[in-house]
Amino acid sequence: QVLLVESGGGLEQPGGSLRLSCVASGSIFSIKAMGWYRQAPGKQRELVASIVTGGSPHYAESVKGRFTISRDNAKNTVSLQMNSLKPEDTAVYHCNADVFSFRGRNDYWGQGTQVTVSS
After folding, report:
1. 1, 61, 92, 103: least buried by Cβ within 10 Å?
2. pLDDT tens-digit map of 14-71
């Protein structure tokens, strides 16, 4: 079993910053990619940022220049530094990992962490 646990959400004012972190644990052979998705009320879940092992980060247009994704492959962690936050960034943020384990290759999701941007 593979478990993803997020931390770091909360309430921030517009223009402020938050940092999200996610750690993957369990019977992991390797992780091909990790990323962050978000889902706002009444909207579909959307990709925020992702990074493939050995590759370059990919960002949604709406967060380019404001958010930075980073990974620590040795620790199976992924972080999302969110700067210049806007009210439209308000959503539940979910960590995602494309994992090779004894179960084969599967997608895993964290439980989500709430980010609220409001004055």
Report:
1. 61
2. 999 999 999 999 999 999 999 999 999 999 999 999 999 989 999 999 999 999 999 9
Q: How far is CA 99 from CA 8, 63, 103, in A?
A: 23, 25, 9
What's the Cα-to-Cα distance from 4 to each of 23, 75, 77, 90, rounded to whole Å? 6, 12, 9, 21
Q: Is 15 exposed, middle or buried (CB count within 10 Å of its CB: 0-12, 13-18, 19+)?
A: exposed
Cβ(63)–Cβ(35) below 8 Å: no
pLDDT of residue 1: 87
For residue 114 the two structure tokens come to: 């709430």
Nearest to 115 by CA among 23, 32, 6, 27: 6
Q: Which residue has the tokens 């990790």?
A: 34
Helix (H, G, I), strand (E, B) or coil at 89: helix
